[in-house]
């Protein structure tokens, strides 16, 4: 069993069943019935929320255990999500969508992370949106979630460079108290990006 499978192999949901606070606050920027890709979606809390809002959602995660729990959550909520088992590196990023959502994807070091951001950007159709939410480097000192590696975290400088030429709708670095299951709980150092791809 992989490390991620072992983490998710429990009755409760590691990060809860409610969407990330960022997504709950900002999903309104998506147009009605958008085609959305939720990357590294885990146990489905974010993709299920988006489907409940009426979007056409595809979600993937590398952990079959997490994806099975996501399917159960979607069934419980009465929504349909196209769940697939795949890793970040294996996903076909040439399939364009109206929006790509990436929430707390902090398991990649700088070279792989930079490639992931470029892949995500490629998957957004012209005029579409990128919604990214994760930890700032000081999160390592807070110890309330995420890996203990500062280099895996996001900075606003790094994200501004990765999405240079896009219309930046939100780019913020801030602290907040979050309660998202046992995986993310307490004071957290957060970074948000919402950007529109040039049409």
Explained architecture:
- Residues 36-128 form the Methyltransferase domain.
- Pfam families: Methyltransf_25.
- GO terms for molecular function: methyltransferase activity.
- There is one protein chain.
- The chain is built from seven helices and seven strands, in the order H-H-E-H-E-H-E-E-H-E-H-H-E-E.
- It has 199 residues and is an alpha/beta fold.
- It has one domain (3-196): Vaccinia Virus protein VP39 (Rossmann fold, 3-Layer(aba) Sandwich), CATH 3.40.50.
- A seven-stranded mixed β-sheet has the order 3-2-1-4-5-7-6.
- The longest helix has 14 residues, at 64-77.
- It is globular.
- The termini are far apart.
- 42% of the residues are buried.
Could you tell me the CATH topology label. Rossmann fold
Q: Number of helix segments?
A: 7
Indicate the radius of gyration in whole angstroms: 15 Å
Strand-residue fraction? 25-35%
Mean pLDDT: 95
* Class from secondary-structure proportions: alpha/beta
Tell me the distance between the termini. Answer: 43 Å
The neighbouring-strand order within the major sheet is 3-2-1-4-5-7-6
Question: What would the principal axes of the Cα set say about the shape?
Answer: globular
Spans of at least 5 consecutive residues with low confidence: none
> What is the element string, with H for helices and E for strands?
HHEHEHEEHEHHEE
Helical fraction equals 25-40%
Largest sheet: 7 strands, mixed
CATH architecture: 3-Layer(aba) Sandwich
The CATH C-level class name: Alpha Beta
Q: Supply the number of structural domains.
A: 1
GO molecular function: methyltransferase activity
GO biological process, one term: methylation
Pfam families: Methyltransf_25
Keywords: Methyltransferase, Transferase
């Amino acid at each position: 069993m992989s490390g991620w499978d072992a983490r998710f192999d429990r009755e409760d949901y590691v990060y809860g069943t409610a969407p990330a606070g960022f997504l709950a606050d900002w999903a309104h920027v998506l147009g009605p019935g958008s085609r959305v890709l939720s990357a590294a979606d885990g146990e489905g809390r974010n993709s299920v929320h988006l489907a409940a809002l009426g979007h056409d959602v595809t979600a993937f995660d590398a952990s079959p255990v997490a994806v099975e729990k996501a399917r159960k959550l979607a069934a419980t909520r009465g929504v349909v999500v196209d769940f697939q088992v795949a890793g970040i590196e294996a996903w076909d990023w040439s399939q364009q969508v109206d929006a790509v959502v990436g929430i707390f994807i902090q398991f990649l070091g700088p070279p792989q992370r930079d490639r992931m951001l470029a892949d995500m950007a490629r998957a957004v159709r012209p005029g579409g949106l990128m919604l990214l939410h994760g930890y700032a480097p000081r999160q390592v000192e807070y110890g309330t979630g995420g890996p203990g590696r500062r280099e895996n975290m996001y900075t606003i400088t790094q994200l501004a460079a990765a999405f240079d030429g896009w219309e930046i709708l939100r780019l913020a670095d801030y602290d907040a108290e979050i309660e998202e299951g046992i995986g993310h709980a307490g004071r957290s150092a957060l970074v948000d990006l919402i950007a529109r791809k040039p049409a």
